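SAMPLE LOG
Freezer: B-3
Tube label: C17
Construct: single chain, 416 aa
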Amino acid sequence: MARTIGKHSSSKLVILLACAGLLGIALIIDFLWASSSSLSSSYLNWAVDTPRSVTIPKIEKKEPGKGSKRNVTERVLSATFADIPAPQLQWEKMAPAPVPRLDGAAIQIKNLLFVFAGYGTIDYVHSHVDIYNFTDNTWGGRFDMPKEMAHSHLGMATDGRYIYVVTGQYGPQCRGPTAHTFVLDTETKKWRNMPPLPVPRYAPATQLWRGRLHVMGGSKEDRHEPALEHWSIAVKNGKVLEKEWRSEIPIPRGGPHRACVVVNDRLFVIGGQEGDFMAKPGSPIFKCSRRNEVVFGDVYMLDDEMKWKVLPSMPKPDSHIEFAWAIVNNSVVIAGGTTEKHPVTKKMILVGEVFQFHLDTLKWSVVGKMPFRVKTTLVGFWDGWFYFTSGQRDRGPDDPAPRKVIGDVYRTKLSL
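STRUCTURE (predicted):
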């Protein structure tokens, strides 16, 4: 009798171990699938310091092979778990851009927004400039970029007439970066070459400060590893005054897709991420393959002694905001971006808030909501109106994952 009981116990143990093994294999397969999703499905179809709300309901489930039900507590996270409550701004739709853009660049000079490059699709990149006129809300004045100039992930800054363009990704998919740099005279539409960056970078923080063009961080040549290097070169009236870039104090935290702002003689670097999509090994077209990314909301300021100071972080981690900002009444206003991935689906989550960084108090607030969540917006501010165009928007109000690349233009009246 004892022997019979032992056999039944062994059989049950074997069955339990087999079930546990199958469950483990399923979890591993699910994890690998989520971690290896490619750019074609999430890039172009595509903390809050802590999540604001998580729903964990009880779900009635039947045990396999049995008629009775039992209560099973299962984590079901809201697709909008990262949204911050904020008032809805009144947005007005304007004339759309001539082409949709993702990872493009933009510089505002007076009433004109110069919009550069970017992906049209994952396999096609733009190589021209479009100009939006805030005064009459029209597009026009298209002209070509130099053939050697990068098509996305650019570093860019202006002195009010000349636009300085450094490094970036050359070509579609996840191709390599170029170290080429250029300066554009926006009045004559003429380009000049500048000394190349010491090594190429993806989406470095770039600004003009105290007579020097500063280039900081970004991603290294593999597109994924964060870079800490910081270089500068003296420039004036569209001309380079030195033959070589000078090494400066490294940035405290590396990575691409950050806002870089100079205002009141202070240089700020805001948000960004560590890691990015990179080319799939052996792919002849440099097909993009997803890697782990860490989005952060860190804010750093370079002071008079050329030392970095840590300032209060953004309301939530935010990346893909390098051209998503404007200076409005002694504050920096930032629209959209990307935040931490969904903890269950591992999908990218877009940002739908407009943030304000008060330069007098160095504190953050949430101004309101955008018409939808969107990343890599190109932003301008003119005559009290806050504009954004281009980027990649969400799948709908209840799904913050990225989908459609847009060329739409929206504006809202800001009284800050």
